Amino acid sequence: MLWTRRRWMRTAAAAPLGWQALNVAGRAQGRRAAAAEPPPVGPAPALPDKANFPHLRGVYLNGAATHPRPAGASELIRRAAAGEVGDADGFRPDSRRILANFARLIHTEPENLVFVPSTQAGESLVASALGLPERGAHVVSDYLHFCGSQEMYTDMQRRGLEVSWVKMSPEGRIPLDQLDRALVKGKTKLVAVSSTAFVNGFQHDIPKVAEAAHAKGALVYVDFIQSAGNEPVDVTAWGVDAACSGTYKWLMSPGTALLYVSPAAIARMQPPVYHWTRYTRMLPTTHMYPFDTPGREIVDRYEPKSGPAGLFSMGYEPNDAALAGLEYSLPYILSIGPAKIQAYVQTLTDRLKQELPQRGYRLLTPPEARSPLVTVVAENAQQYAPAFRAAEVTLTTRWNHIRMSPSLFNDMDDIERALAAMPRRG
Prior knowledge:
Elements: H1 5-11, E1 15-16, H2 20-29, E2 41-42, E3 59-60, H3 71-84, H4 95-106, E4 113-116, H5 119-129, E5 138-142, H6 147-158, E6 162-166, H7 176-182, E7 188-194, H8 206-215, E8 219-223, H9 235-238, E9 242-246, E10 257-261, H10 263-266, E11 285-286, E12 299-300, H11 309-312, H12 320-336, H13 338-355, E13 362-363, E14 374-377, H14 385-390, E15 393-394, E16 396-398, E17 401-404, H15 412-421
Parallel strand pairs: 3-15, 5-6, 5-7, 7-8, 8-9
Antiparallel strand pairs: 1-2, 4-10, 9-10, 11-12, 13-14, 14-17, 16-17
Helix pairs in contact: 2-3, 3-12, 4-12
């Protein structure tokens, strides 16, 4: 049976076909496998889902750094790479279908999305589209925003931009009232925050952040790379103007990022880059070559595309291998449901939050946070890295923090093994 786009969208709500069947299905179809149609999907996996991650060894609690790929995503990436060199077993992903699935995941329309190289590239493009760094303009951000973005705004500050940094409380929160007080009506152009902080998993109340910012005339940008895929996200209900997420963390496939921009925000932005892919036609009408009709300018009859594509398209299109994994991972996430993933992982993080203080560690993650990140304060955290390696526990030790970030393939045995590898303190 041929798989139409409409039939794919109907079946994407179900769980993916067992990854073992992907290779068999591709070889059985021969050259037909190169058509831009993913394999069908099957029953939803129970959690924890270890079957889709058979390559994992030891205990992996580092999804906030790089999330492992499901085996089905890895298989499609292999087949896409093969297809690019003419292999009959190849697979050709469909970027439109990927945009549709991601739009469904975050509750928007595909036309409000555009591919960009990375999460911070999306934020940089938004800032540039607003004319930043503009001398005298004002941006509000906070101590828990992504450190690369903090570098960006600090550099802009040196060039005349005014930036207010909202401090983190001792409990690891960014107080909304302090963020609100930092806003300056008629002057603040942008509020830039992370929905879930990469350092400790603190979660902003994004609708309230947007309400406060809009009341002062500012736009809101949200980095949601630590939210997309592991919790329900609704950018429309959030009321934000722009948001971006890379795919290599909780979206479970490397290679690209997706930028959302609301239709209302588009009107307040100017193109930060120029490329012919911004326009609806590949070639304009020319008035400079032999037999051309005369014109007032050397080219005309070119119109920008609507939505973010008309502002931010710059010739960037992820290659087949970069996109192919998303043809598996996005339907896989949708089949289970972000709310179910969040609820399951919460049972694991609750155990960490309960036990780590008993072992002498101070939580930097607020107890009420429902993110999959749990961070404790540990001076010279790198000193603990050899013990974790010896126990085959993968997590993050940097600055003066230890961060654990379990996912849907982990179980309570993994948590207990990680806790056993934590030296008791105090």
